[in-house]
Task: structure prediction
Amino acid sequence: AGVLGAGNFDAPCETLMEMFFKSRVCIYKSNPTNALTDSVRAKIFEPLISKGYLAHLSGGGAVGSALTTHPSIDEIILTGSTETLQKVKWGSTASEQAKNRKNNTPLVNKPICAELGAVTPWIVVPGDQWNRRSVDKHARAVAFAKMALNGYACVSPQLLLVAENWEWRQEFMDRLRYWLGQHPGGASFYPGSAESHSFFKSLPNAEVIRPLGGEDGGDAAFAHRRQHPILIPNVSTDNEEQNVLMQREAWCPVLAEVPLPYDRLTNDDKDSMQFLKSAVQFAEKNVNGSLSTCILINDRIMKKNVKEFDALIASIPYGIVGVNIFPAYAFSMSKLVWGAYPGYTASGHGKIGNTSLFKNPEKTVLRAPFMNLGRKSMEVMDAQKHYLVASRLTKQTLCPGYLNLGKVSAALFLGI
Result:
């Protein structure tokens, strides 16, 4: 199998799946963005490389093309953009792609498992359990999910679907601005992200959220490279200029609020469920992609409408569904599946993960309580604290024990 690695992270899970669950030797080509990790990865996988089960390549498009078209490769696994998939299958230039499509002569006829991106919607369901505390907690969770990896993630939230006349709407947006302001933004290291950031900054109503600690976020030498978060409130579905938010993946810290009609007629949970259904229908009809979505909904509504809610979750056309939890956590759980919803190819096709070997899985569903006590511990926004937690968690993984576990807890809860 030939594996084209992702550019936003470098954890070749798909390679291990091909080797240990499909009994294949693999050639892994890293993304040029991750060139600095090539030597580290080679050291980690040295036992497999030295035995001839795994080979590593590095380089650009020419190397990738040589790999995917090689006759010894019988399957291609790639993580990237739709443009990457089109180049692999039809050609590197627009004219070559057009010619091959016209003649129906793809460059490769072998199976391709493609993990592509999406415009990710998060649905905020109105209800009586919302208050100042829950609004603040969930606004913080949205900000963390948006700023994780500076928005360079295929599950990064891009649209907030909210009820137009929701009583907590303004409060939610104010707290979202506050929490986005806690993060100065990361460096523009991903190819094309600077141009994308400038484009979305030019859209109507776009707000650049400046860091609360000052313009430079505490580091003047780094300030010119930062991409500050962009918040675009009150996006109109009738505004053609703003419709690009629903079709083009930003791949940088951009978040847009889309208010949808909400008729509160009977003052009970049925109205909330009706809004959820209409928001799902809106996303399916208007939003590009089928990889992931997240639903923020209080526990009482779920319990009182359990059959209806479960049926909706089962039918929703997304490959990863988070209920009160960031869908990205599913990637860290190898027993689960990761990939676009079957039949909806805008976000790719095929699945990775699934070490439990479920037959024909459709989706992964993660659930958490509306007010999850552990949420804050998972949402580390301070860069220094994040490094402290990650380094100690790595040590605990490599050398499990009570001492290292205690150090992880101290970093996580006390920041020491």
User: Anything to note?
Assistant: The chain is about 35% helix and 15% strand. The longest helix spans residues 269-286. The chain has a mean pLDDT of 90.
